[in-house]
Amino acid sequence: MVETAFLASTASLIWFVNYYFPIGPVLRIFFPLPIALLYLRWGKREAWMGALTSLLLLTVLMGPTRSIIFLIPYGWMGVAMGGLWKRGANWFVSIGVGAIIGSIGFFFRYWLLSILLGRDLWVYATTQITELAEWIFIKLGILAQPSLTLVQLIAVVMVVVNSAIYLFVVHLVALLILDRLKSPIPRPPHWVQVLLDYEG
Fold it and tell me: Which of the residue ranges 107-121, 150-164, 183-197 would you say has the lowest mean pLDDT?
């Protein structure tokens, strides 16, 4: 119970500090790790308790909107990563599942903020990607207007790829930190071990 409260508070504090004192993507890497560590040490029930406790703490500190944006995707991601790591899932599976959760979280955040602001933010994002696609078409000498379907497909692919890269970095950090906390995660693919010169 004490460790659950401590790690839930840690997750909340990392989110809180990053929101008010952003220092780039550094702290973002740690968002799901306290909840994943809870799963590795104590199991599914405690991991969900930790995620929900973080939600309640952040609701008090920052309000319900920002707290729900923590839970979806990062609290959920922490529970999923902890479960997959405890079952010994390989990195391709855990990164894939995490990337799906991260992408769902991205679109949930867009949907929620669109409701709160009273305007469709997806239209704005689509407009920006259309301009990028037109620039690429011009540089490639393609004399065609990118279709709305193509633009939206590019947007979705960009979100998923970004989530996968984020999850890969989270896995690298978890590999280095959780081993030292005596809660190791599955070993990375051989090429990653060679790249890092890591002996697990």
Answer: 183-197
With contact defined as beta carbons under 8 Å apart, do 175 and 188 qualify?
yes
The pLDDT assigned to 200 comes to 53
Q: Report the alpha-carbon distance of residue 89 to residue 159 in Å, rounded.
A: 23
Q: Domains of the chain by range and CATH?
A: 2-196 (1.10.1760)
8 A C-beta contact, residue 31 and residue 11: yes
Cβ burial of 33 (10 Å; 0-12, 13-18, 19+) is buried
How many Cα atoms sit within 13 Å of 104 on the Cβ side?
Answer: 14
Cβ atoms within 10 Å of 50's Cβ, excluding its own: 31
How far is the C-alpha of 118 from the C-alpha of 54, rounded, in Å? 28
pTM of the model: 0.87
Question: For residue 199, what pLDDT is reported?
Answer: 58
Is-contact 54 46, C-beta < 8 A? no
pLDDT at 81: 95
